[in-house]
């Protein structure tokens, strides 16, 4: 029997105070009165419907994302987490992450979150500069961002991430590094630092702001990475930096092609299971995006939509799309563990990638080279099926 594939749970809470102009996530402006109770009912019904696909498997991590999950009360999240514990076996040292935005921080509220067993926060700062916060449509100011980290620590969170963006409209190198220095001073255990991109179907795509050019963006990235390294933050993924031992276990599971249940409006899931003939089948699915439609759909036989089984010819690209994002690469045996397919399938593109100097491959390990790290898309595309 092949090694068990880790299982995580992603929970999507889709409401925000206000939709940001750069955001392409499934988020919606919150109504005057949030339907907390109805939505928790829907989430637990949704999870119960997923149980037959994951019998006997335990959760390695839980991630409550959005939207702005910290809009929900501790009482609502208590009922949610109690319901999860009643339905599924959990790893003893379960990582439970809650996304939060500074404009929603209240000390008593976050102390209550910690007492529920939530042991990791991901705080959406994006910038500390007033002009950048304004153009990004954030509802918080600099002082609220600083206060959020302080409240997190007082509430008992010794493990928290700060989200920051760079290459913002009209941003200078000095401003980008000032943001990073300020974030480092707040002593997070993890930093997500990523470049602003103009995603389709966003306000920024319709009305593009003036962004730094490629040269300046590259200068910011290079200087920022050097600063983070000097401060003890190791880059372990394209946009993820962590102190030793503080990598996000939940997100790492995605990048290592692990399994995850997705519940909530617009949530995605990936579940692997063995057929009677011993073959591994990988199923991907999505839940209804509109919150009202989602809540209604959980009353039916299944809240899943867009269900598909991953074809073997697409496994190479799907696997490398995730694993090549890891700076140090991955164990070669991970391929067969997570796909159930002989690595003969990926030998031709691996050889081609090595010939082009994009991937370094040994009998035990596969990782991007420095060149491959800078041209990840090129490396990944080599694993696409020839007819795609």
Topology diagram in text:
Blueprint: E1 7-13, E2 15-16, E3 28-29, H1 36-50, E4 59-66, H2 74-87, E5 90-100, H3 107-115, E6 120-126, H4 130-135, H5 142-154, E7 160-166, H6 173-185, E8 190-195, H7 203-206, H8 214-230, E9 234-237, E10 240-242, H9 249-255, E11 259-264, E12 268-274, E13 280-287, H10 291-297, E14 304-309, H11 312-323, E15 330-331, H12 334-339, H13 347-355, E16 359-361, E17 365-368, H14 370-374, H15 376-381
Helix pairs in contact: 1-2, 1-10, 6-8
Structural class category: alpha/beta
| Helical percentage | 25-40%
Query: Helical stretch count?
Result: 15
Gross geometry:
globular
Widest sheet, order of strands: 9-10-8-7-6-5-4-1-11
Largest sheet: 9 strands, mixed
Oligomer: single chain
Termini gap: 33 Å
Mean pLDDT: 94
DSSP summary, beta strand count: 17
Radius of gyration: 21 Å
Low-confidence stretches: none
Strand residue percentage: 15-25%
Please tell me about this protein's structure.
Strands 9-10-8-7-6-5-4-1-11 form a nine-stranded mixed sheet, with helices on both faces. 37% of the residues lie in helices and 24% in strands. It has 388 residues and is of the alpha/beta class.
